[in-house]
Amino acid sequence: MTSAPLPTLLLVDDEPHSLAAMRMALEDEFDCLEAADAEQAMACMQDNYVQAIFCDQRMPGRTGAEFLAECRERWPETVRIIITGYTETSDMISAINEAGIYQFIPKPWHPDQLLMAARNAVHLFRLSRDHERMSLEMRYLSSAADSKLEKRRKALREGLGFDHILRAPNSPLNAVIGAARRHASFDIPVLLTGEPGVGKAEIARAMHYASLRSDRPFFALNCAGMTDEMLEAELFGIRRGAAAGVQSTRIGLFQKADRGTLFLNGVDSLSPRMQIALLRVAAEGAFAQVGAMETQTTRLRLICGAHRDLKTMVAEGAFRSDLYFALAVAEIAVPPLRARPGDVSVLAQSLLADLSARHGKPVRGISDAALEFLEGYDWPGNLRELENEITRMLVAAQGPVLGPELISRPILQAEPGQDPDDRRASEVMVAEGALKDRIELMEMRILRETLTRLRWNKSRAAAELGLSRVGLRAKLDRYGLAPPAPVGAEEED
Ligand SMILES: Nc1ncnc2c1ncn2[C@@H]1O[C@H](COP(=O)(O)OP(=O)(O)OP(=O)(O)O)[C@@H](O)[C@H]1O
């Protein structure tokens, strides 16, 4: 078994019997090196890892204090102890000052006194080494933590910033993003309007990360469908016991987002009571927790979202005009997906890549024919509906490329390039025009949807539609319907 090495001491004295006495007192617990003068002692220091020095003051050549002063320069962590029979105060004071002496031991010393001094000195040596190591580690750790934090912030800024909002190069969204960028760094409330799922939350988040508040938190809440009680608890926070089942006080988003940004979506669905509460926050930054008497303040930035036109609601008396003006210092309208069909392909392919990775189902992409159908649809549910459709297609896909046969029926039945208001079968029913024209439009859509879904297998399509193959071909010719190129694997004729 190997035991830990003993701590090393250097004993310096010109009198051999003093050196022997010191060694006797210390050698059980310490590894003792000896030197008869400052020169020998210096050589010893150079060759060994010494933790404490016991040095006589009066020696031929350099004095103990002079030697220890040099040691202080070169090996500052080594603990220095001086032993002297001379009690001149001026000597001692200059020794302590110049050599940074840890302890002064007068002659004659007692062996226990020397042992105690040696133990303390080694303990001090270890403490100061640990301290040095820890402060180095702390310095390293804090700079590593700082750089980690900075990297994370940068990733957030880049990952959640405006560049993350996908769109085609000439998308109408470019102007919207431009306006949002310009307003981002002005600490003013902004109102984002647009249908559900158009990307308002995405834009609000990008505005936060492009603002001076980017180091502070961003929170988002959709008020639509929440009762006043739920909203109050969520936004103001709630005191313990203020409502049944509230076991502990919870802070709300107004407090959590202090000095950060809160995106409050669906403000058009706020009740009159909640409108008053929000006005107080928007105007004074003041609110009170549910169940609390005292008012709290917050310095959050409000970005609000609305599906309906708030100005119309103000005119109808359904929304407070003072709140509208408090929230809409700047107003940015986000267009629906049907107004930017060029974005559909970019979004669909990016969604597919994400979904394919998330669900572990590798696919290469979406065929041009499928993209044409997707671009032609009006997407009333905007990005959420697009994501659902791509998910469905991915789940059903059997090959590496997602073709139009995977698209769901309402989308296949829509007429690409047609007035969006007239795309859906139900809209054909209520549209105006001659009965024959409307029936033919329906017929054409049903034919195209069936053939696309059956990958242009005309035998199967004719069978499903109760037509002869000749009858089907005649109808295809009449409507000018043809398979997209390249044709599907199952196409015949
Ligand atoms: N341009 C875009 N690029 C990438 N993803 C987008 C884009 N726009 C929206 N999304 C995604 O679409 C989904 C819906 O967007 P978001 O929640 O921002 O819409 P919203 O307008 O705030 O909807 P709602 O008003 O219904 O809450 C989110 O998953 C969002 O990440």
Automatic annotation (TrEMBL):
Q: What does UniProt list as this organism's lineage?
A: Bacteria, Pseudomonadati, Pseudomonadota, Alphaproteobacteria, Rhodobacterales
* MF-aspect GO terms: ATP binding; sequence-specific DNA binding
What this protein is called in its record is Two-component system, NtrC family, response regulator HupR/HoxA
The family database entries (PANTHER family) matched by this protein are listed as: PTS-DEPENDENT DIHYDROXYACETONE KINASE OPERON REGULATORY PROTEIN-RELATED, TRANSCRIPTIONAL REGULATORY PROTEIN
The record's listing under Gene3D superfamilies reads: 1.10.8.60, 3.40.50.2300, Homeodomain-like, P-loop containing nucleotide triphosphate hydrolases
Domain Response regulatory, chain residue ranges per copy = 8-122
Any one of the GO BP annotations: regulation of DNA-templated transcription
Q: Which organism is it from?
A: Albimonas pacifica
Q: Which residues form the Sigma-54 factor interaction domain?
A: 166-395
- This protein's source sits in the domain of life called Bacteria
Would I find Transcription regulation among this entry's keywords? Answer: yes
Q: Tell me yes or no: is Transcription among this UniProt entry's keywords.
A: yes
